[in-house]
Task: structure prediction
Amino acid sequence: MHDLTSTTGIVAIAAGAVAVVALCLSLALAIRLRRVRADQRALLGSGGQDLIAHSADLQRQFEALHDYVADMAAALETRMATSEQRLDGAVAYRALVRYDAYGEMSGLQSTSIALLDARRSGVVLSSINHREQARLYAKQVHEGQPELELSPEEHEAVRLALQGAGGQAKQ
Result:
């Protein structure tokens, strides 16, 4: 029993040393395993899922999100198309021409204004002013062509509007 130098004693010391090394190694591995499991809980949550189930759940969630985004994109496309159609009907081209309809030296009191949409359709309004009276004329324009014959000033208003001048011309 007291003989550690014998073969049995040396084997016992070696077995004890191996046991101590194995105990230290198993403690280190237990600590690492605890850290790995803590990291898994942080990643997977506390639902008790394994990595494969978590991956499948993420895939289902991603597909649901993709479908939702695709639906929203389709809805936005529809809204955009509706908005573009509405904007095409709004005034896109306009011009105002001032002139003296009666040549009386009373100033440029008469006006013709062209208000056209993106399809070059709209209205030309002319206000002919005189000292005692004023007259207002409205003529429709469809795709750049007037419904009724336009005066030279009304033609000028349409021309300026379609050129994008948008401002005032004086004659």
Summary: Helices lie at 7-44, 51-88, 152-163. The longest helix spans residues 7-44.
